[in-house]
Amino acid sequence: LYLILHFMKFFLYPGAFKPFHDGHYMLLKRYIETYKNDDDSYFMIIVSSTPREFITIDKSIEFITNIVETKLGSKNVIVYPDANPMRACYTLVGQSILHAFNKDVYTIITSTKGNDNKRFEDFYNSYNEGGKYYSGINKIFKPNEIIFEPVLLDDGTPVNATTLRNYIKENDFDSFKTGYKYMLTDGVISENELKLYFDTLK
Fold first, then answer.
1. How far apart are CA 112 and CA 120, in angstroms?
2. Maximum alpha-carbon separation in the chain
3. Which of 70, 76, 85, 174 allows an S-S link to 14, with CB 3.0 to 4.6 Å?
4. Which residues contact residue 130 at a Cβ distance below 8 angstroms, ignoring those fewer than 6 apart?
5. Looking at beta carbons, which pairs linking 179-187 to residues 24 or more positions away fall under 8 Å?
C-alpha cells in the first residue's frame, strides 16, 4: 500500500548554463529553500552537453556541482549532461508513465524570462488531462508559491549568459562580476574563486 500511495516530486532544471550565473542560482535557490523540508523532493539539473563557444560541459558541471552540493547543501540534487535537456525532461516523464503504480510528479524550474513560460505550459499540457501524453494521471504540477521573475542586473535587464560570455572574451572581469552579485553576497563564492572561474573559462 505504501508503494502505491507514495510518490516523489521531481524538479527538472534543463538548460545550457554556459556559464551558470545569478539568474540560474537564485531561481534554483528559491525552489530548494521552498522544498528543503520535503524529503521526497528531488532536483535534476540537466546541462546541455553542447559547448557554447569556449565553455565546455566539463567546466559547466564542475562549477554547478560545487555550488549546489557544497554551498546550497542540498542532498537531493543530481547534475548530469544531455545533448537535449528539454527532450530529456519529456523522456524522464515518459519513462515513468510506463509503470502502472508510478505516482511521481514533475515540474520544470522556470522563470518568466524569454520563452520559458511557453516551454513549461507545453510540458504541462502534454502530460496532464487532455494532453497527447496523458496516461490517466496528471504528471506535471505547478509550484505556485515560487517567485518566477528573473534576476535583473543593475540596468534592469535579466542576467544573460551571452552577455557574460562577451565579457569573458573582452577580459572584462568587473563587468562579468555583475552577473554574480547574489552568489557573492550569499557567500556562495568568493571574489577570488569567481576570478579563478573567470580565468578558467577564458
1. 10
2. 60
3. 85
4. none
5. 179/21, 179/22, 179/23, 179/153, 180/21, 180/22, 181/22, 182/22, 182/25, 182/26, 182/151, 183/22, 183/25, 183/67, 186/29, 186/71
Map grid coordinates 557544497 to a residue.
70
- Alpha carbon distance 179, 90 (integer Å): 30
E strand map for 95-140: 105-108
The one-letter code for the residue type at 156 is G
CB distance 189 to 183 below 8 Å: yes
Cα dihedral angle (147, 46, 121, 3), rounded to 10 degrees? -90
What does the pLDDT look like over 125-184, one tens digit per residue?
999 999 999 988 899 998 877 777 788 887 888 899 999 999 999 999 999 999 999 999
- The pTM for the full model equals 0.90
How is residue 122 written as a grid cell?
507545453
Q: Which residues, including other chains, have CB under 8 Å from residue 81's CB and lie 6 or more apart? A: 46, 47, 48, 49, 57, 61
Instruction: Supply 149's cell numbers.
Output: 521573475
Residue with cell 556541482: 65
Sheet holding 41-48, edge to edge: 77-82, 41-48, 9-15, 105-108
Q: Which amino acid is at 122?
A: D
Which among 152, 116, 114, 149 has a CA at the least distance from the CA of 21?
Answer: 152
**Does an H or E element contain 80, and which?**
strand 77-82
